[in-house]
Write a structure and sequence with these properties.
336 residues; alpha/beta; 2 domains; thiamine binding; thiamine pyrophosphate binding
Length: 336
């Protein structure tokens, strides 16, 4: 074989490999610093599939998917609130699929349908980030409950995520309505609103703001709070005694994808033990039991503090909840 012939053969082989490789468009609301290790791990295990991520906050990704219902642009959703995925499932937008490791997934952390339309990855839950240095300067006591945050001493000292933009914000509002009931839930949020400085468009931002001393109290979630505290931020993590609102990061295949086989590979990986070991670096409660390790910054009974969360109810009432919330509280929303 001449060098020219060999070069031609190699070129043909490379072209064939490229032709066989699939590219998946993946919509996600994962934290930006999580995407790279997840992508690298999947592509190492599946060298014939390349992932192209489109990342936005939960509310924006949910709205984008709904707007594209009749002309889907995404192949897979990897890392979006189960509440949002249930909205999509109810509209017939998700492809049912049972990942290979489905039997190892906790039943409460997957879609009720069989085969499921979405499968959970990990839990993230409400946490109050409390800046002890700034609070001491202002003479603010550490809150112990959600109700504590309505005390006059906290006026203009609190930030939290906007529920239309942030999955963390929505899990807060949904949990308060499920915990306290409709009337008492809205009454609570009315009182909390009096003390609210701003509703921001990110679930992690309130904790970052508290860690930086911009506000002494940020309603956020445990992963970001623990990460900032480990890095030396002067914050305490408060887990309100009434219970913690929560949601699942989950995975789903978008119905109509032209890359179904590759999408199924991603769904298999997302529900596998190797993937769970990646999620464990960020979260204390996983969809697959027996993988998570205790986090010294979280209570030993952390999982038991999660409130009862009806994903179906939350999904079906999401639009009405957000409309009412905006009518009452939009005046303090951060400018987009």
């Amino acid at each position: 074989m001449t060098l020219n012939t060999l070069a031609a053969a190699v070129g043909l082989a490379l072209a064939a490999t490229a032709a066989q490789a699939a590219t998946l468009t993946v919509y996600t609301a994962l934290e930006a610093d999580q995407i790279k290790p997840y992508k690298e791990a999947f592509e190492k295990a599946n060298p014939d599939v390349e992932l192209r991520f489109v990342r936005e906050s939960t509310g924006i990704i949910t709205a984008k998917l709904l707007s594209e219902k009749n002309n889907p642009k995404a192949d897979v959703v990897w890392g979006l609130a189960a509440t949002s995925l249930q909205v999509l499932a109810d509209q017939g937008m998700l492809q049912p699929y049972a990942p290979k490791s489905l039997a190892s997934i906790t039943p409460a952390f997957r879609d009720r349908a069989n085969p499921p339309r979405w499968v959970g990855m990990d839990v993230w839950a409400a946490t109050i980030c409390f800046n002890t240095v700034e609070a001491a300067k202002k003479g603010l006591p550490k809150p112990q409950s959600w109700m504590d945050l309505t005390r006059p001493v906290y006026k203009d000292q609190i930030v939290m995520p906007h529920p239309a933009s942030s999955g963390t914000g929505f899990l807060d509002v949904s949990a308060w309505l499920q915990m306290f009931g409709d009337k008492k839930g809205w009454d609570y949020m009315d009182k909390l609103h009096v003390n609210m400085a701003q509703y921001v468009h990110s679930g992690s931002k309130p904790c970052k703001m508290a860690a930086a001393g911009e506000y002494p109290i940020g309603i956020s979630f445990e992963y970001r709070g623990a990460q900032l505290k480990e890095k030396g931020a002067p914050i305490d993590l408060v887990f309100p005694k009434e219970g913690l609102g929560w949601d699942l990061e989950a995975t789903a295949i978008v119905k109509g994808t032209k890359q179904l086989a590759a999408a199924q590979k991603l769904a298999d990986f997302a529900a596998s033990r190797p993937a769970m070991e990646l999620y464990e670096k960020n979260y204390a409660v996983l969809a697959m039991p027996g993988v998570a390790k205790p986090n010294p910054l979280l209570p030993a009974n952390y999982e038991k503090q999660l409130v009862k969360n009806d994903f179906t109810w939350a999904a079906r009432h999401r639009d009405a909840i957000l409309k009412e919330w905006s009518r009452r509280y939009e005046s303090k929303a951060e400018a987009k």
